[in-house]
Design brief:
The protein has 55 residues and is mainly alpha-helical. 84% of the residues lie in helices and 0% in strands. It has two helices and no strands. α1 runs antiparallel to α2 (30-50). The longest helix has 25 residues, at 2-26.
């Protein structure tokens, strides 16, 4: 169940990043760029948590 929640979290933030990034490219604005960066970092963190760790 946790993996499913992480996957949904990842997809939500990846899509939010794409929307903010497109808005920043089309309209401009530092706020949208910062939001896109934050959403990207959250998506990366979620993807790291989804992948099994190998030692």
């Amino acid at each position: 169940m946790n993996q499913l929640k992480l996957l949904l979290f990842y997809l939500d933030h990846a899509s939010a990043r794409a929307i903010d990034r497109a808005g920043a490219d089309w309209i401009g604005g530092d706020t949208r760029r910062e939001r896109a960066k934050a959403h990207g970092q959250l998506a990366r963190d979620a993807s790291k948590a989804l992948l099994p760790r190998r030692h």
